[in-house]
Design goal:
heterodimer; A: 304 residues; mainly alpha; 75% helix; B: 361 residues; MetI-like fold; 2 domains; 15 helices
Chain lengths: 304, 361
């Protein structure tokens, strides 16, 4: 962008101290945040990991052969890494590389579905609590506290057991225990801007509570919610993998990473790669989300 | 009630002059009790709900699928499944409060008895892990905060980042592969080698303690060799979280002006950091430590599965796969109650470590 022949015009436009339009000011703000973020090596590493994960999931059929994720070649089982099988084969002769690649789709699906449930629920509970205060606040926050005091994995376990194993139920189980922090966060953010003058101005103009919450407060909450979500994704991935490991997540033959670790346990001592490689994938992805979340939080701190 | 009294906000008004200390403490205790009670009600509501929506038919589990419709209906009425939901919940609640979780289908013992039997094994794992987390994690967090941005900070941050990104079951497997199978430094899965089982009669249920009490040092060393790996792995995970939180709390404190003031007055930096600044973050750390202990208990499901450690987690997991509903819900309630208890404990400890929290109430 900056290497354009008319040297640095785009950059100069973005960093202009006197923006001439709202769009320019907004773009400039984003660009400055990005410049700060880019200096953070760890955060950039996280971003790269997460981007690679997304690309891997989207282009999985181009990277690996879908057939070989489920193709059982019993004569070819437990092979060590080779050119033909980059990560070797598992106890049923399936290609571990292909399964890891396609497993990224399952992981991303779970993360995306949980986010889609958790953020709206958290906002729906936290925003009214912070905005209206009083009785509504007490009731909503009491409910949140109750859910916050629950042991997450054990409850997810009980739910997954009650609803039956499977990805959808794992998602519901994780979401049920993951929303309270978002409600807390949304409430705290609402409280800080509740008495601001622009809110009072909107109230005086006769805007309804719903309108003020939706148009004034939600945009203020979103950055911190997104940062929190990124940090939580690592935890969500670990919980999902844990459920998979216990046999309560995606069901075989789906290439879920946690379940792959579990099935590799029997041959751990002789064929270590069967269990360790999918586990490494879980670790790297969760590390990526943690790094990215940390970086986003630092960038958010710097701006405020 | 006079107008002056009503004007002072309902909970937090500082009126130490006309309110005796005992009254304040009682008020505080009542508040904590109400919140604990409500949380407990919520927990039992959820477990009750899980018990109702669970796809396994509890009647079928008792009578078997060859039973006649009459027998089925009779047993259904006996368990009380024909009653309205609120009544069923009330009956359930009364039972839970009395510690009656029903009988386990597999062991045919009362669930509570089973739980009490396996719980010490989980404690044996969780307590050393928490100790590692506190004793190593807090100093690490302090050092990271005081060396912000320099290499000790980077190393500690990366170390703790790895810790809470790591799937515990995978770390356990890798640990077993490396330290047990390859190097032979530690004992394998389980709490004892086969030859050492049943030598010591359980008193506390914690084998390392029991063997010392009985003077069976061989058993003690064997138990310890089995304990070291899982406890260290859990210890590393709790260390990661505690160090990270300590670092961020300490950074907040070091920014305060009193730090600058005490340094300017000539106090040694060591004293300012380890006594004054750290002293101020203890309140927050108490909550973090309680949370860590809670997560160790629930993480036990995964660790104990990997290490074949016969504790609460393995019990819940095995019950789950044998459709032993009573046992699963009993275990969930137990973990939940411990969780709630830990939260309550950290609320109660606040005023002990922080005079500000004491005066505010």
């Amino acid at each position: 962008m900056a290497s354009a022949p008319a040297s640095g015009t785009a950059r100069a436009w973005l960093l202009s101290p006197a923006p001439t339009s709202r769009t320019q000011a907004r773009c400039g703000r984003w660009f400055r945040a990005w410049l700060g973020f880019r200096r953070n090596t760890l955060a950039m590493t996280g971003l790269v990991i997460v981007l690679l994960l997304v690309l891997m999931a989207v282009f999985a059929p181009l990277i690996a052969d879908r057939q070989s994720t489920t193709l059982q070649e019993l004569g070819n089982r437990l092979q060590p890494a080779s050119w033909h099988h980059l990560f070797g084969t598992d106890e049923l002769g399936r290609d571990i590389f292909a399964r890891v690649v396609f497993g990224s789709r399952i992981t991303l699906t779970i993360v995306a579905l949980v986010s889609v449930i958790v953020v709206p629920v958290g906002l729906a509970i936290g925003l009214p609590a912070g905005y209206f205060g009083g009785f509504i606040d007490t009731v909503l926050m009491r409910i949140t506290d109750i859910f916050l005091a629950f042991p997450r994995l054990v409850l997810a376990l009980a739910f997954a057991a009650a609803l039956g194993p499977g990805i959808e139920n794992a998602v519901i189980a994780i979401a049920l225990t993951a929303w309270p922090p978002f409600a807390r966060l949304a409430r705290a953010e609402t409280l800080t801007s509740r008495r601001a003058e622009f809110i009072q101005a909107a109230e005086l103009q006769g805007a309804s509570a719903l309108r003020i919450i939706a148009t004034q407060i939600v945009p203020l909450c979103l950055p911190s919610v997104i940062i929190r979500l990124t940090l939580d994704m690592a935890g969500i991935i670990l919980t999902a993998a844990g459920l998979g490991f216990l046999g309560l997540g995606a069901q075989p033959p789906a290439p879920e990473w946690g379940a792959m670790v579990s099935s590799g346990r029997q041959v751990l001592l002789d064929q270590w790669w069967v269990a360790t490689i999918p586990g490494l994938a879980i670790f790297i992805v969760s590390l990526g989300f943690n790094l990215l979340g940390d970086g986003l939080r630092d960038a958010g701190d710097a701006r405020s | 009630m006079s107008e002056a009294a009503t004007q002072g906000a309902p909970t937090g008004a500082p009126a130490p002059a006309d309110r005796p200390r005992a009254w304040i403490l009682a008020h505080r205790a009542a508040g904590i009790l109400v919140s604990v009670g409500l949380t407990f009600l919520g927990l039992t509501c959820v477990t009750f709900f899980i018990g109702r929506v669970i796809p396994i038919d509890p009647v079928l589990a008792i009578v078997g699928d060859k039973a006649s419709p009459e027998t089925y209906a009779r047993v259904r009425a006996e368990i009380g499944l024909d009653l309205p939901l609120p009544v069923q919940y009330w009956r359930y609640l009364v039972k839970v409060v009395h510690g009656d979780f029903g009988n386990s289908v597999i062991t045919s013992h009362p669930v509570l008895q089973d739980l009490l039997q396996v719980f010490p094994a989980t404690l044996e794992l969780a307590v050393p892990a928490l100790l590692i987390g506190v004793v190593v994690g807090i100093p690490m967090g302090v050092v990271a905060a005081t060396h912000r941005g320099r290499w000790p900070d980077q190393v500690i941050r990366l170390l703790s980042l790895f810790g809470y990104s790591m799937p515990v079951f995978w770390l356990g497997l890798v640990g077993l592969l490396l330290f047990y199978a390859t190097l032979g430094w530690v004992g394998g899965p389980g709490r004892l080698d086969v030859g050492f089982e049943d030598i010591v009669t359980p008193v506390t249920g914690v084998i390392t303690v029991d063997s010392l009490l009985a003077g069976e040092y061989d058993v003690f060393w064997n138990a310890l060799s089995h304990l070291v790996l899982p406890a260290s792995i859990l210890g590393y995970l709790s260390l990661a979280y505690i160090a990270r939180m300590t670092r961020s709390f300490m950074l907040g404190q070091l920014r305060q002006e009193y730090v600058l003031a005490t340094l300017a007055k000539g106090l040694s930096p060591w004293r300012v950091i380890w006594v004054h600044a750290l002293g101020n973050v203890w309140v927050q750390l108490v909550t973090i430590i309680a949370l860590t202990f809670g997560s160790l208990l629930e993480g036990a499901v995964l660790t104990e599965t990997v290490f074949a450690w016969p504790g609460l987690g393995l019990y819940i997991k095995n019950s789950l796969f044998n459709a032993d509903l009573n046992a699963v819900l009993g275990g969930t309630v137990l973990v939940g109650v411990v969780y709630i208890g830990l939260n309550m404990l950290s609320d109660l400890i606040y005023p002990l470590v922080d005079p500000r929290a004491r005066d505010r109430q």
